[in-house]
């Protein structure tokens, strides 16, 4: 029988080229197959396979020192630059910044691989084409999340939503139409997953209670007890998340 290995966490200091020292969370994950560095609202995190040595992890951090400094600066200021072929080196997804590589090909598309994101573009790809590919990628990722979460709530609803669509919303995060269609803000895929899931549960509960009465919030509480934490997260990060998507889509 294979022995289960738990996830182990510690931290290591890294000196950046500008003289700052940052603390990087080091995570040994039995599921990890290679070294991976990412940045989110909690800071920098290095994920390592169980057999990777501390020396190889330190070398990986040293090799990515400049990239890490840039991502930490962007995340701290909340500033995201418009998408630029060959120049944009990371894209946000699920409250993380994932490294981005560019390549040429016959079709323009954005996809994931084991090392992060790859944006393949044609020689004639313009801004509109890049924006459409980015939007298609984000919607695909959002629908993947939806496919994981929605089934667990359907059994407690009087009826399923007629359909779920994603759109760019100016102020709302979601809505339920009179025909039971749910609309969700596409920028939710940039938020932390628990916040995204809360918005989904919120809109599904409107199938039970059309208003925001006490009865409605009891339905939310029964299905998602941590909803207050997610509401607070939106109060702090919501505007930045929406602005980020608008900037990237141009």
Keyphrases for this structure?
250 residues, alpha/beta, Zincin-like, 2 domains, 8-stranded mixed beta sheet, 3-stranded mixed beta sheet, 7 helices, 38% helix, globular
Question: Can you walk me through this structure?
Answer:
By secondary structure, this protein is of the alpha/beta class. It folds into 2 domains: 1-77, no CATH class; 144-249, Metalloproteases ("zincins"), catalytic domain (Zincin-like), CATH 3.30.2010. The protein has 7 helices and 11 strands. It has helices spanning 54-63, 65-77, 127-149, 151-154, 193-205, 214-223, 227-249; strands spanning 8-15, 21-28, 36-40, 43-48, 90-93, 96-104, 109-113, 116-121, 163-167, 174-176, 181-185. The strands form 2 sheets. Strands 1, 2, 3, 4, 5, 6, 7 and 8 form an 8-stranded mixed beta sheet that branches. A 3-stranded mixed beta sheet has the order 9-11-10, covered by helices on one side. The longest helix is centred in the middle third of the chain and has 23 residues, at 127-149. It is globular and about 55 Å long. The mean pLDDT is 91.
